[in-house]
């Protein structure tokens, strides 16, 4: 998961696919991306099962790229990213739209709750331990992609998210911090990352207000701790699609009820569980939005 999703172009291409882009020209029009990078990401996403390539024209040959069950099930993570950017990041050229819950008709914010007991949960309410297949060496992110250089180009709807977790080592540092790691030497030793990469990503996390540093310890700020829904939904997605025969990599316990913690996103207005097909940007009517996007009818794709 860290190697696959810890790449900003991958996240941006998936974001646009779930917003309705299907053809090569759609992605080129929506993203500040080069032809070579887009072609490589689309190929990788198809190889990894996150997109499906389908030929819609033979002369000349033309293909479209459709979301799959694997990519559609990323909607809780992408919804959590949307809410984090909307609440915590002010530096948007245009404000991130509010979210509308079609089921109750209200603008809403997603709440992270425990499926077992229904109670709300934050990073303070859970304890994470390695499962049968878990270890830091096994979880070191691997990737063959390169992040784009420079900060001049816009990163779509989620600029801070892309700079924070749109890099495999940045994503790994955030995850490690949630389980209590705070020293540079521990990050380097446990993650096995080059010192230069750790230093670079830590500086970006500090600049973006996700970490602060006191003495030799790097700790999550309130803004950083608010990434908890993003991290836990990404973890659940990973353990669903990349399961190991011997058991889960990470076991998370909800301290309030003592049960295994599985996150569910609920509407803060009607308290009902959210479905991907019932969430859309608030300024777009449900009728026009669904009609214009038959393949991927909301910001997060179908459930």
TrEMBL record:
PROSITE patterns: HTH_HXLR (PS51118)
Keyword presence, tRNA processing: no
Residue intervals of the HTH hxlR-type domain: 1-93, 155-246
UniProt-listed Gene3D superfamilies: Winged helix-like DNA-binding domain superfamily/Winged helix DNA-binding domain
Keyword field contains Transcription regulation: yes
Highest taxon, organism lineage: Bacteria
A Pfam family it matches: HxlR
InterPro entries reported in the protein's UniProt record: HTH_HxlR, WH-like_DNA-bd_sf, WH_DNA-bd_sf
Keywords: DNA-binding, Transcription, Transcription regulation
PANTHER family (alphabetical): TRANSCRIPTIONAL REGULATOR, MARR FAMILY, TRANSCRIPTIONAL REGULATORY PROTEIN
Name recorded for this polypeptide: Winged helix-turn-helix transcriptional regulator
């Amino acid at each position: 998961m860290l190697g696959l999703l810890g790449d900003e172009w991958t996240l941006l291409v998936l974001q646009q696919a779930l917003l309705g882009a299907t053809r090569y020209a759609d992605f080129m029009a929506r993203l500040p991306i080069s032809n070579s990078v887009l072609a490589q990401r689309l190929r990788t996403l198809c190889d990894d099962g996150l997109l499906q390539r389908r030929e819609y024209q033979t002369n000349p040959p033309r293909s479209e790229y459709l979301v799959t069950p694997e990519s559609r099930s990323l909607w809780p993570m992408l919804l959590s990213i949307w809410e984090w950017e909307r609440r915590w990041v002010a530096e948007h050229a245009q404000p991130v739209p509010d979210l509308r819950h079609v089921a109750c008709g209200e603008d809403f914010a997603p709440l992270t709750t425990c499926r077992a007991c229904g109670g709300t949960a934050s990073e303070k309410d859970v304890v994470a331990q390695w499962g049968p297949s878990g270890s830091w060496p096994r979880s070191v992110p691997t990737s063959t992609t390169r992040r784009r250089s420079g900060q001049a180009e816009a990163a779509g709807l989620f600029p801070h998210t892309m700079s924070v977790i749109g890099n495999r080592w940045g994503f790994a540092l955030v995850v490690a911090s949630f389980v209590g790691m705070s020293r540079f030497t521990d990050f380097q030793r446990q993650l096995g990352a080059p010192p230069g990469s750790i230093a670079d990503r830590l500086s970006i996390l500090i600049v973006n207000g996700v970490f602060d540093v006191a003495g030799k310890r790097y700790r999550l700020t309130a803004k950083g701790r608010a990434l908890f829904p993003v991290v836990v939904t990404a973890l659940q997605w990973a353990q669903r699609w990349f399961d190991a025969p011997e058991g889960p990599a990470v076991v998370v316990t909800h301290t309030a009820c003592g049960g295994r913690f599985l996150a569910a996103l609920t509407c803060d207005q009607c308290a009902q569980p959210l479905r991907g097909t019932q969430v859309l940007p608030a300024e777009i009517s449900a009728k026009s939005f669904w009609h214009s996007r038959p393949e991927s009818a909301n910001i997060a794709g179908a459930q």
